[in-house]
Structure formats: C-alpha cells, structure tokens
Fold each of these.
Amino acid sequence: MKPQYLARRRPGQARAEAGFALIEVLVSLLLFSLGVLGMVAMQAKASNYSVDAEDRSRASRMANELVASMWAEQKTAPSTLTQWTSRVADPTVSGLPNGVGTAGTDNTTGVTTVTITWKAPSKTSSDNTSTYFTQLVLP
C-alpha cells in the first residue's frame, strides 16, 4: 500500500487549485500597502500637531514675556510694546509665522488683554488663524 503523501492527484484537482497562492499573495500585499499608507498619513498628522504645539508654546512664552515686563514697569510702555510686537511678527527671531501681537487695557476695569494671532504656513487660506490670549490686572 502506498503512503498517503505519494498518492496521485486526480487530473481535475490540480487545475482547480492553480494560481490560488498567487491571489493570496496579492491580497496580502494590498492589505500591507494600505496599512503602510495609513501609518504614513498618521505620521504626517503627528508632525502637523507637533508644529502647532510648538507655535502655541512660543505664543505662550511671548505673552508671558510681555506680562512680566508690564509687571516690572507697572504699565505698558510704548517702546516695550513696539519691540514686543516686532518680535512676535518675526519668525526668524523666535516669533510666529504671520504673527500679530496686541495688548490693550480696559480703563474701567483695569484688565489688560494680551492677544497673539498667527497662521502656520502649512495651513490653507480658508483655515482659521490660531489665537492665544491672556489677561492680567496690574496692581
């Protein structure tokens, strides 16, 4: 008696299974490619979020810098405000891209609001600008 593995196949059986392994390989390559594309898209989004977080941190530091100057001087000196707004607008000197900084005081309440707006170069013209603001009351 012949062992099972030496048994011959019937002629029709081999033809029905021909090419099945190739289809399995192609489907697995398709699934793998979709997974890789998804990971690349996630990496691009993570990079954008990282840049946005860095810009927000920079805006926070710049607003706190002006607040510290205001506390030290007990007012908003025009020269200090002019220098600060020029630094906010200059991304080459720790400023923000398309950055605009303003500071205004409400004379009735004494509350000073420091506002910084910017728009990252990666954002389209239809995207909203980013804004950071803080308020303080000088004694």
Amino acid sequence: MYEAFFGLRERPFDLSPDSRFLFLAASHQEALSNLDYGLSARKGVTLLIGEAGMGKTTLVRAVLASYRKRDALCVYLNNPTLTRSEFLRFIANEFGLPPAAATDKVTCLRELEAVLLRRAEAGQISALLIDEAQSMPHELLEEVRLLANMETDTTKLLPLILAGQPELAGRLNDPSLRQLKQRIALRCELKPFDLGRTAAYIATRIRTAGGEAARVFTREAVIRIHEASQGIPRVISVICDNALVAGFAAGASPISSRLVEEVCRDFDLQKQTPPEPPVKAESMFSDEEPAEPSAADEGIAAGAADHHTVTEPQLFGDYSRRRRMSFF
C-alpha cells in the first residue's frame, strides 16, 4: 500500500458533481482553504503564488465552480492583458451592468457598487478572480486596488483573488504598488512536490484511471520522473503521459527508468539533483527494472509505426477497455 510505502495519507479531493478529482498536497490544501476563506469571509485581496504548472488555475477553477453552486456571482478573468477601457467593458458585461457602464467609468463604478451592495445585503457573495495576474499592466493593478476599496463599514463588497507566477510577488514590491500590497489579507504559495508526493500523485492518477501503480511504473522510473520534473505537477503529467505512449509502442511493462530517460531527452528536460535522498520503496511500485533491450526488443520499437505488429501490453490490459489511461 502507498501509505505504508511513503508514510503519507494524501487523497483525492472532490469539489464537483462530475467527480473530477484533485490531488492536494499540503501547500495545495492550504491554498484551497485560503481561497475559500478569502471569499466566504470577504477578506479583500487573496494572493496565490506558484510556478508555472503548479496547479494555480486548477485550484481557482475548483473554488469558482464550488461558489457558483452557492448562488455567488464570481467573475473570472484568465487573460488580464487588457487596456483600462477593455477592463471597464469586461466588468460591466460580467456583472450585468447597464450598457452605459461599459463606456463611462463613473457610471460603471456607481452601478457596480449598487449591485454589490444589494447582493451583500441579501447575504450573497460577489467576487473577482484574476488568473495570470503577473501579466497585468501596471494601470490595471491600480484599478484592482481601487475595486478593493469598495466596502461598507463592516465588510468588503468585492473580495478579489489574484493568482500568478512568482514575478507577481516581485511586482508587488514596487513602491508604486505598495497600497495594493497592503490590501493583501491572505497570501499562499504552492510548493513543488517532494519525491513522496510525486509518487502519490502518479499513483493517484493511475488509481483514478482504474490501474495498479505497481504494474505501470518502476520505483526507479518514478524517481527519475521526480528528478526531471522538479516536482511540478504539469511536467510530471507530461512525462508520464509520453512514457505510457512509448511503453505501449514498445510493449514494455512496467515502464522503466530507461524509457522515462528517453522521454526526458525528447523534451529537453535535464537531469536534476533530487531535493532529498531517494525514498526506499516497499510495495507501491515495481522493484525490478526491465533488462536492457535485446536486438529483438529494439525491433518491436522500430516496427511500432505498423499498428498491426503491436499487441496491447499488460500495462493497459485489464483497465484500458474500461477507461483509457491519460494524465490529461
């Protein structure tokens, strides 16, 4: 069992009715709690920081879907490289303001505040969630600060979530943005997975697809995936997905570190030193690395383009007919 293997008890987290599972490591769970609290308690600005591929958009969309089921008016902007006038039109359209609000800032602010007040008095949540916020022009960051000023004597009218890469944190250190930085009530940062959580993430995705981790990747393959991905979930998924395709074509089961290494070379992922000593595996992933391929084995890979010569390996045997394995 994985729990005995790594001493952890990570598990999928379900936020939606269609059972789309999220794997939440500690920093992701903390971030999700902060985003939830920031909206429910109307805490002004909540800042979510993380490297590309760490799952920021996934968490923001999960919170968005959850609150939209609660009759909340949550506006989501995922491409904030807009001009002031474009941002004004976006706000007017998304909050259902009169047509005049899209062209006149005074009208927009007056109508927006009236909508937010009515909703607050009815106990309803209104929010603005901005993804890729590191790309926002300076003038829009100032507009966001002014929106964060909308409040009553007791509560904020428009809680905001700003999600972005680490450059966003650097930009907020600019003296000209100090007023916006002072309005950040909650701050959370997503951390890369360590080796144990990389293995847990892979095993969870395999189980969700109906598979058995020990039949898919060897321990050494998982360690190599962790080294190459540096614990970034998106990169882990890309490596695993392509390793599965390569393993299917070559008839390899389980996937070895050699196959993972080939995928890493294809994607120009240089070998990285792991941040911690390798974890000794007991039972989750296969102990045995497949032997080096013989000339006959190389012939299997060479002939993979002819689908009539490739049989479905054990890797996809029992569960591929029920649910095709994919990390995307």
Amino acid sequence: MEPALARACQDFEAIVLRPMFAALKPAALPASADEHADDGAGDATSMVESLFADALAMAFARAGGLGIARELSHALEPAER
C-alpha cells in the first residue's frame, strides 16, 4: 500500500470521526463556555475543545479507527497487474 494513499485515507477517516469526538467534553474543561463569557475564557475553552476533538479523531484514525481508512485505501489502490 502506498504511504501517501494510506495517510490520505486516515486523514479522511479523521474528518469523518471529528464530529463524534467534538460532542465529547474533556472532564478538565468547564461544562460551558458561557460560564466565562465576561473574562474571555470562553473563547479559549472553545478553541481547546476544538483542538481536543481534532487530536482525538486523528489519533483514533491513525490507530486503525473504525476501519474506514483501511477499506477506502483498498478500494482506491491500483489493481496489481
């Protein structure tokens, strides 16, 4: 399997998985960004939550994920001649 194709398929799987992980809230973060609306911390909380979802989705996809990347790469790789 071509490494560039495998990486692209993993990136695609991470994009598919990201909304699922975005729904999760890290326990260390406040429950709502509205709690800190007056001190500007709400923006930082939203950014950290977004970065957390991105990192978690990418790590999950790189570790094998749901198998979307594997199936996609098999479907897209050129047939052996």
Amino acid sequence: MEIVRYSSFKNPESDIQSFYNWVNRLQNHTGRAYQKLELTTALGKTLVWKTGNPDSTVKLVIFPGFRTTPLFWDLDKGLDYYVNDFDVYLIETNGQPNPSDGNSPAIKGLGYGEWASELLDKLQLEKPIIAGASFGGQICMKLSMFSPDRFKAAFLLNPGGIQPISLSWKNIYSNLLPLLIPSKKNIATFLDNAVFHKPYHYLDPIPYSLLLDFEHLAITRYRDKTQKPYFMKGEFEKIKSPMYLIEGEKDLLFPAHKSVENAKKFFGTLRDSIMFPNVGHGIETYRPVHEEVAEIIKKLALKGS
C-alpha cells in the first residue's frame, strides 16, 4: 500500500496527552471504560478502543467520520444500546486527529479497504458487523470493494461517497468558518448549523462541551493533510456486501434524500434505508439511531446472516 499523505499534531506529546485527557473526561461522563489496543498496520500504529461484551459472538466494528473519533458514538451514551449484547471495537482511523499514526493512502484507491481488512485480521474478527458515520461509511464501502465477504453487513450512517458534498451557501459557510477563524464561537456555529438540527437533534451541555473541545483540538492542533471524501460515481457496482443506509433527514453536508435515491439506484445489495426526521449530519450522536441499529443487528444475529 502506498502512503500518499502524512498528518500530525503540531506538538505530538502535549497534543496527544490532551486527546487522552479528553477521553478520560468522556469516560467520567459515560461511566464506561474503553480498553486501549495498539496494532501495527500498513499505515503504522493504529489505536483501537474495545468495550462491550467480550463473550458475545456478535462483533461490531465502528469507523468514525472525518475529523472525529469513534467515541463520538458515546457522547450521548449511544453505546448503551450495544455493550450488553455485542463485542464492540472502535477504530481511530489513521490520518485523523487521534494517536494513530498520521499516514494515509490515496482516498480514490483501495488503500483504506486494504487497511480495514488488515485490521479485522489483526483483531481476529472473522465475520463482524461493520458501521461507519460520514467518512467512516466510505471506509466501509472501500472494505466491501476490497474484500466483500470479509464482514456480514455494513451500516452506513449519513455516509460520504454516495453523492458529492453539498455546495449550498449555508454548508460551505458553516464548514469553512471554523477553519478560517478557529474560535470556539465559530466552531459552535459549525456544530449548530451543520452537525445538529435544533431543537430536535442536539446534545446536553456536558456532551456538547466535550464535542466542542474535541473539534477545537482537532482544528487548532492537528495538521490535516489527509485526502477528503469524494463522490464514488462509477464504483458502486464493486460493492457486493449487504448494506444498510441510515440517514438524517436534515443532513446539510450530504442531503439525505439524494443519498437514498443513489443508494437505491446503484447498490445491488442494499438491504434497507431508514430515514430519521429532524436529524442532522452528526447522526452518530443521536440515541434513537443506535437503538434502531442495535435492533437490526440482533435480528441479523438471530438469522445467522
């Protein structure tokens, strides 16, 4: 696998410690401990968090969105719906603001799919369920293209790649503002306009503060060189694995109805698409989504498929 980009924290020692301090704050909020695993992969060191029921035969692997962490799934204690019944692995994707090495492959190749397959091998997971939000959904699709029989099914939550990013003025403004002037006020504007949909989809003060602090760390302390998600037009026929599409109707980055339309048109293995009204792009912070996904996974486990 060719490494084409390298991202890094500006001051790795202190910035990575800030990351771990943030994780400790999240653990205090959720009352849940995340076991840390460090694996050596083609992209260097990859950090994996483990939680849930280690005796469960159902293994769930979660890939995060761009400039996020898979621990966002627990900001509103969303992992409550998984940890009793599933063995859960949360992947800190290389090239993102986390302690994994900053190496990343070409986004338009199969490098991330190869890396994801290697991760499953290293974790000794034979046929897990995989899930990804936003950019994590694109990684799930890349894994399907690289090795379609490597997992039982994939859950794509507001995934990138099914359509181009929205060029609406509100979306462009909300995304660029915190990058150009990375104050917490401007990051909050991005979160309120592009990630959530108030008052229906929002976070209480403690998890919101955690999210805001993480994004401030990611934007101000991480030199992001990783190539960005792209529209995978012409590649969908290579996706052969069962797919479940989970959409927030108010997704500003990737408008939900177009994603559903494209998935139904291009995915020959689409098992279902579910739309959550009044939910924004940050769908992984919305507890009802996790309740629904967990129930579908339980049914898949009962069917043995």
